[in-house]
């Protein structure tokens, strides 16, 4: 048994086997709610979605992509050119800076394409492990679990993980769920976190997982 597996809450494997069918019943077609037409748009939308809602990102990206349809076009932009187009999204100044730098790197190192390579995406400005997992799983079918605030919170409430570090939560979930369900799992957990198991006042009484969920940390 690995050290990480040894730290998993008691009964986590049994609960994981209950969580998956429950999520399949609720969200059979779970997928990202970010709007995109190609890997570049998905990468940009994912960078913009950090600490912001998908709704706010989807409201901004049509105009952004009309003005800057690909990495080559965006690589010529200065952050100040991008700011007015994304100013309704949280942390827009930092994100504009990252997008301009990211587009330049895509052109310089990857011919303007989003690389199908985890380490290369992680190395892009404004990207990180979560962004790489979202982009590679949705754009290229890479098996990945992107741990955002919803996935982390639900993993702890359902006692699938005791970890607060997203990378460690991801490692726990990878040991509990079949690899071919990882992409579905993170999308379904995100939807459940938005619709039922919200950070404040989760709707436990109406939740299909109420019978087996230990509700760790829920008051
Ligand atoms: S029972 Fe409550 S804490 Fe558990 S997953 Fe459902 S809403 Fe979240």
UniProtKB/TrEMBL annotation:
E.C. code: 4.2.99.18
Broad enzyme group: lyase
Catalytic activity entry: 2'-deoxyribonucleotide-(2'-deoxyribose 5'-phosphate)-2'-deoxyribonucleotide-DNA = a 3'-end 2'-deoxyribonucleotide-(2,3-dehydro-2,3-deoxyribose 5'-phosphate)-DNA + a 5'-end 5'-phospho-2'-deoxyribonucleoside-DNA + H(+)
Domain HhH-GPD: residue ranges: 48-195
Listed InterPro entries: DNA_glycosylase, Endonuclease3_FeS-loop_motif, Endouclease-III_FeS-bd_BS, HhH-GPD_domain, HhH_base_excis_C, Nth
Entry's Gene Ontology molecular function annotations: 4 iron, 4 sulfur cluster binding; class I DNA-(apurinic or apyrimidinic site) endonuclease activity; DNA binding; DNA N-glycosylase activity; metal ion binding
Co-factor note (free text): Binds 1 [4Fe-4S] cluster.
Names of the cofactor(s): [4Fe-4S] cluster
Function: DNA repair enzyme that has both DNA N-glycosylase activity and AP-lyase activity. The DNA N-glycosylase activity releases various damaged pyrimidines from DNA by cleaving the N-glycosidic bond, leaving an AP (apurinic/apyrimidinic) site. The AP-lyase activity cleaves the phosphodiester bond 3' to the AP site by a beta-elimination, leaving a 3'-terminal unsaturated sugar and a product with a terminal 5'-phosphate.
Family statement drawn from the similarity comment of this UniProt entry: Belongs to the Nth/MutY family.
Protein name: Endonuclease III
Gene: nth
């Amino acid at each position: 048994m690995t050290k990480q597996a040894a730290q998993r809450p008691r009964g986590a494997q049994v609960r994981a086997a209950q969580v998956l069918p429950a999520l399949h019943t609720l969200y059979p077609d779970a997928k990202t709610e970010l709007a995109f037409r190609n890997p570049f748009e998905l990468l940009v939308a994912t960078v913009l979605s950090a600490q912001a809602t998908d709704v706010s990102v989807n409201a901004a990206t049509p105009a952004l992509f009309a003005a800057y349809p690909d990495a080559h076009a965006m690589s010529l932009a200065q952050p100040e050119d991008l700011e007015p187009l994304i100013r309704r999204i949280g942390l827009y100044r930092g994100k504009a800076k990252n997008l301009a730098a990211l587009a330049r790197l895509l052109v310089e190192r990857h011919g303007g394409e989003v690389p199908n390579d985890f380490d290369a995406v992680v190395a892009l400005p404004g990207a990180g492990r979560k962004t790489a997992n979202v982009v590679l799983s949705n754009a290229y079918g890479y098996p990945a679990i992107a741990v955002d605030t919803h996935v982390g919170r639900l993993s702890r409430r359902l006692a699938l993980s005791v970890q607060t570090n997203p990378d460690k939560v991801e490692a726990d979930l990878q040991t509990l769920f079949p690899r071919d369900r990882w992409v579905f799992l993170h999308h379904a957990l995100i939807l459940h976190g938005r619709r039922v198991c919200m950070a404040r006042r989760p709707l436990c009484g109406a939740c299909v997982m109420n019978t087996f969920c230990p509700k760790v940390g829920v008051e």
